[in-house]
Write the structure tokens for this entry.
Amino acid sequence: MGAGQDPPRVTLVVRPGCHLCIPAREVVERVCADLGERWEEIDVDSDASLAARWSEEVPVTLVDGRQHDFWRVDETRLRAALAAPARPRPDGAPGSA
């Protein structure tokens, strides 16, 4: 992320080999491309605190650093969340700071 650039609004927390992560990624990619929003993907096993919190819920979708969905991404809900103004990320939220 460059200087002065806001963090991506969407973070997708995944695990390699997760069969639910593929369709979740497709929805996130499509919605973010349609709406011109940036997103990032984080491996749940890359950080012990992520694994402790979300290991059993991957894929997890975060919007503005807050949990939005888990297991499946509802495209309509994600579009609605991204239509709202961005909210400040909570302290310690996963993803780019």
